[in-house]
Structure formats: structure tokens, C-alpha cells
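User: C-alpha cells for this one?
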Amino acid sequence: MRLQNCAHNDYDAVTGIINQNHGGSGGKHGFHHENSSNKKTESQRASNMIEPLVDPLDAELFNDNEGEFVAVVRAESIVNAPTNVETFGQPYVQDPNLPFTTAEEARDEWTQARMRRHTRRSFHPDEELNLPGKDSITCTTIPVDWRPDSFDNLVEKHWNVLQKDLISVLNVGYREGLPTTKSITDLRDHVKTCINYRRSTQLNEKLRGFLNEYVPSIFTVLLDPSGDLITTARDNWLIFKDKISILYEVFLDLNGHVGSAVALRPVWPMAIQCVRVLLEDNFNVFESVADGVIQEINNERNGIQIDGDRVHKIIEMFVMLQAYETIFEPRFFAATQKFYEQESQTMFADTDVPKYLRHAEKRIREETLYYSSYLDLKSKGPNLRIVHKCLVTNHTAQIVEKGCKLLFNGADGAEADLSLMYQLFKDSEGGFDHLKEAFVAHVKQIGEARMNATGQEKTLVADLLETKAKLDRLVVQCFEKNPMFLEAQKDAFAYFINLKKDKPAELIAKFMDLKMKNVNKTLPEAELDQLMDQVIMLFRFISGKDVFEAFYKRDLSKRLLLGRCASVDAEKSMLDKLRAECGPGFTSKLECMFKDMEISKELCAGFKEHLKDTLPVKQRITADFSISVLTTSSWPVTDGIAEVSIPKQLCKLQTKFAKYYIDMNKGRRLAWHHDLASAILVGKFSKGKKELDVSLYQALVLLMFNDKNQFTFEEIQTATQIEQSELVRTLIALISVKNPILIREKAENARFIPTEVLKFNDKYHSKSYKVKIAQVQMKETEKEHEQTEYEIQQDRQFVIDAGIVRLMKEHRRITHQQLVHDLMDSLRFTSTVADIKKRIENLIEREYLKRCDDDNQSYDYVA
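Assistant:
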């Protein structure tokens, strides 16, 4: 049987039992009701009629599986209940544990049951309902003024039972008498009874008054301590937690975990509030506790072992009492700042920077560990910032000034110490600025020392690459590739590498020339590719990129023409890197040089076929030869080269090729440059034949000794028509080795004299059959260097002129200051204001622009 009490706040309720018979009389389902009329008059309401809240058709929804159905009805008027009230066919038992249910809850339960019933019907539409019961409805009303006799004194009765055991729980010294599990269960039954009878509010007020009276007694010893204050506070707090935990179990239902009183304040907040009131009345005591805990922490900072669990319990007390941020935290922060300010001043004065940095890092790590042991995490961030400020931020400038120079110069463990300094400066305001300034000063210092070192030009580029690699490693390992330090390094490098204006660009070009000659000999191609990347990085810093282009082009021309290109792929790879860095215009002439060499090979092969087809067999040239046709605008050829006297065989070959080429290319003209030619001769010596790889000038000199064994310097010059300076360079290569081909008669003389005799050394010998005589063309002459510099200046003048005209076309009228400023921003090389002013004057003379009539500091473009 299911009992349904429908009680409003004034307890007027009607309950009833509906007994059904599936074949009974009255209604579709055999129901019988005292009045089934839907419309009621006032007289009907006055005649004690009742109205069901549910449709009789749905009355079976309240089936309790025992053949009886409960229907909820509302009384239209209250009737006097008999002395022995029978509800649901049984005598009513005044059970104090019987729960009362409101009409609202009854309606909600009926709605849910109805939904379940309709859902079952939707899935089983053909199911027959077996509806047992009688064919009548009997209802019994309960009057509003009827209730159990003991209801008014219910809370007081149960509270008297509870209070006896609660006193034993909270009184100091009764820990051994705490209730057992069985007694806690009994106490909870009293709490449940009060809750069931809707007396949660009254019970809660009883509990609050009880806590306000007895909780302060737990802390009596703390308020008047005679021993260790910290230990007393810890013990009192543990006793408080133990006893309130038991109360929490007793009043678990009241706390809302079980039962219906979910809106009432739980036990713990009420108990904590009692302690907070005690705290406000005895503020000085809790301040003393906080000072004691802080002193314990300072003792641990000084290396004295402390009871961490005791500190942890006190911190927990402050947190739960919501006094951590108001009492403990401000005092703790102030003590931390005072402690580390004193320590930092002493440590910084007595130790060097690396030791101080390691000490600071150790202290910060220790402070972090305190929070994982006993301090509250809420103050971790602020406290660490205070420690960091005292140890690092306040001394940032002094740390950099005192220790950076030593660390940058590579002392033992310098990289690890620099990395530690960088990590500590991360959280320091302005810390990176001080460190960056020191880093820039260091880079400039070592760079200036490299650039100003005397006699170090040959190794300057290698030294710069080594310095760059070291600084890169420093930025990566110590500064975590921080963009701030990368940019600082670039700016510092660009500053000192251009102290000598165009000289670094020239030296970088010569450095690459040397490396390109030795590919696959002393330098594998894989390493060369890495080296080229490093050189390109240096190339980015130089301002005179046109200087690099000029010298690199001259050296490349010699490598191509004299067969000294060790790897064409490596040469083209370098061009690709230069094109990617500066654009296709920068490498167009260099690429044209490679194209000319490829065309020359095809042209020479065609000329050889032409000779075979046109010359008789006896007149054909048996010697192997090659001719390179160069585009004048792309190659750094020297104008005004004097003609030399070449052998008749070569002269005939030269004439035939010139005719062949001009016939194929009408309107073109060939200018022969024998200074860049080479030859291979077979020399017969007393110790055997040797194949000599020499320049054409050297070949002309050696061929003279087929006629006789000695000649004077003047005779050789007259016969070959070689310019004197070039002849001297040619002869030095033949006589300056340990085993020379020509022997100088007066070797002690520094200079050649016209009458000096040179003899053929018939005893010349070499372990190799093929001997490469030093090719003087590979060495740059003073004249070639001057010619290159002259070409650079001429090209720069053309670039400045073109830039000025372009700006004048764009603006039509422009001031002198703006013209100079815009022009210098657009140039790829460094130029002075004086040089630009000269070019402006030159363009005015050539009538490309003129000064404004109304403004002497402005220019107008002349179309």
C-alpha cells in the first residue's frame, strides 16, 4: 500500500483509497464517486462534497502493485474527523517519523507517474490492463486542526538528547570520550526526525547557539598561552578540526547532503565563523602566531631545520579562517623583502658575479619549494616577485657592469653563467636592456680589435667567420635566439665590419676565390656549401656590395679562363646564393660569363670542324687549342693591352679564327687579350721530357731558347714585345723556384737590368711529368687593382647619377636636403654628401636639372 499525505502549510489534507473492479458498475472503468458532476454550486460546496484532482480514467497511475490506487483529492470544506480516524482502511498511527508531504509535491509526483504511464501505453498499445479492486471509491478527510500530541515540543525533545553528547565532543579534555560510530548513527536519527517534521530551521538555530557558546572554549589555552605559542595554536586547531568533523557527521542531513534542508548553512561555515569572531576579539594573539610562523620560515632560510608540518597546519588555519590575506600574507611579504634585501647587499659585495647568480637562482628555487611544502599557493607569485626583485632586479645594472665583461671574454663556465644571467633577467624590468647594451659593446670591442689589427688582412675573413660563429653560439645557447639579441648582434657587426669602408668586401671576394680554387682538394663540396652560407652572412653586413661584385668578377674571370675552376657546380651554387641575396641584377654579368664559356666551347668545336673541311691534310693544325670569346661588357678585361709577338703558327691560327668568327657574326670586332692566355709546352731536358703548363707570355719566352741557351733581358723584351712590368712578372715565375727552368746570372740584384743574362737550365728535373709553372695571371697586379677600383668608382658615379635623375623625374622639384636623404637610402653602397653634391653639380652642367630661380636650395628637373 502506498501512503500519500497531501499537506499544505496549514495541514488541511485529504487522502483516499480507490478500490477498482474491472467489471464493476458506474463509469467506464467501474469507478464510483460520491459526486461526479464537473460543475458545482455553492450549495454543493457547502454540503461537504469533494473534488478529485485527477481524472478517474487516470486514477490507476498511482498503482502501488498491491491492487490499491491512491487518488489525491482536495476538500471543499472541512469535516470533523472521528476520534478513531481510519486512513486507507487502517487505523491511523501517530508515528513521529511519518513524513508530511505538501500538495505541491503530490501534484508533481502524479504528473511524473502519468507521463510514465502514457509512455508505456505508446510502446504497448495492445496491452490489457488488469485492474483489480472494488467498484467504489472511499475517501477520508483529515481536519486541519488534527496533528500528533507531541509535535510542538518535537525539536526541544530531540535537542535535549543531542546536547548531552555534543557537550562531551566540544569540551576541552574529553577527546577520549568522543562518540563512537554507533552513537553517531543514533544522534543522526534525532536530526532526521526534526528534518522530517519540517523543523530544520529551529534545529539549525539550536546548533548555531551551541557552537557560539562552546567553540571558544577549545581555544582557551591559545588565548592565554604559557608555553610555545605555535605549538599551542597547532594543537588547538587540530582539536577544533577533529570535533567539528564529528559534528559534521552528526548533522550531515542538516547540511543538505541528505534531506530537504539544502538552503541552511552547513556546520563547518558556522564553526569557522565562531572562530573568526574569536579572532576579531583577540587580534593580537593571531598576529603573534603569524610572526612566530614567519620566524620559523626565516630560520629555515638560514639553514636551521624546522617542523614543516607544524607550519603547514598553522598556514591551513589562517587560510580556513580567511585571515591568510589579512594577517599572515602582508607580514610575510614584508619579512621576505627585509630578509633578502639584507642578504643581497652582503652577498653582492663579498662574492663575484657567477657565484652571486648561482646563489640567487638557488634562493628562488628554495622559495618555490616552500609552497609545495606548507605555504599557500595564492601568495607564491607575489612572494617570488619580491625575492626576484631583491636579489636580481635591484642589482641588474651592477651585475652587468661587474660581471658581463668577464663572462663575455670566455672565462671557465662563462656560457652557463651567461645563460643563468639571461634566465634571471627574464623577470626583471629593463634587465634585457642592460644585458643587450653590454653584449653590443662586447661585439663592437672584439670587432674593432679584429679590424684594426695590423698585418692580419690575409686572415681577417677567417677571423670574422670564427667570431660570428662564436657569437651565434652565444646567442643560441645563452640567449635562446632572442630576437632582441639577434638584432643587436647584426647592428654591432654591421658597425665594425664597415669601419674600413670597402676593404672587407674586397677581402671577402679574395677569400672566396681562394676557397673556390681548392674545392675537392683541401675542402669538400659539402663543407664549402656551409662556408658559402657563412660568407653570405658576412656579405649582408658590408655596405660596399658593389666592391665585392667587382673583385669577385675579376677573380672569377681568371678561374674560368685559366682553368682554375675546381667545381663548376660550386661556382654556380655561389651565384644562386648571391642572386637570392641581392636579386638577379647583381649576378647578371657573372652569369653571362658562364654563358660565354659554354658558347666558346661550341664555337671552338665548330672552328675545328671548319679547319678539317677547308685545309689539306698536310696543312692541318695538329696541336690542341681552345679560344674563348668574351662579351666585353660582362668581363673585367683591361683596355689598351699592347700587342705581343706570337709565333707564326699561332698567328696564322689567330687570323683564320678571326675571319671565321667575323663571317659568322657580321659587324662584330675581335680584340685579342694574350695576357689571359695559357699554353702547354713539352720541354726536353737532360733528365728527360717534361710537360710544362705555363702562361702564353712564359711560353713566348721559353720558345726563344730553342734557338740558343742564353739571352739578355733586353733581347727577350725586344723579341716578345711584352711590356716590361709584365715581362718581369713572367720571368720571376721561371727563376724564383728552388729548381728553376731559367737561371739568372746576377741573382743578387733586386731588379732586372737590360744587359742581365738568363740561361736555360738543361739540368731541370721534377718528380712529375706534368709540371704547372706558377701562373702569374692568377696573382693580382697593382695595375689590375687600380683598374678595379677605378671601375668601381665609375660605376658608383653612374648609379648616383641614375638615382638623382630618377628622383628628379618622380618629384619634378625637390629640395637639396630631401634629394640627398632619399638618394642615400636607395644606394647599395656608402656614399658621402660631398660625392653626391659633386654629381649634382655634374648633372647641372649636363643640363639634367637646374636650381630653382626662387629657391637656391631646391632643384627642378629639366625634361
